[in-house]
Design goal:
mainly alpha, 5 helices
Length: about 110
């Protein structure tokens, strides 16, 4: 289980790496990009960074095999591999640069 109880996060690679390794993620719903990675509790769990009791309860639950949400773990792995792997990034960059060049040549 990866726990990331931050008060602020950008778009942390450690969460994407955990998701790609099928490690359950518990992260804070603090400002930043974690909500985009986790989704609406689809690919992990988001908690308030100030709610210590919720963190203890969720971590305790996730440390037991029956507390693991295998569907969420599989969705997390699929999401990261589909949206954040090198090939997808290269495709996005190629599209962005081609689009920017096309816009520039129209001007």
């Amino acid at each position: 289980v990866l726990c990331l109880p931050s008060f602020y996060e950008g778009f942390p690679n450690v969460v994407m790496e955990a998701m790609a390794c099928r490690v359950p993620v518990i992260a804070s719903n603090a400002a930043g990009g974690l909500d985009a990675l986790i989704g609406d509790q689809e690919r992990g769990v988001l908690l308030s960074p100030h709610d210590e009791a919720a963190w203890r309860e969720e971590l305790s639950r996730r440390c037991n095999a029956e507390g693991l949400n295998w569907k969420a773990i599989e969705q997390a792995d699929h999401y990261v591999r589909s949206n954040h792997d090198l090939a997808a990034w290269i495709d996005t960059m190629e599209y962005s640069f081609s689009d920017a060049l096309a816009q520039r040549t129209k001007s």
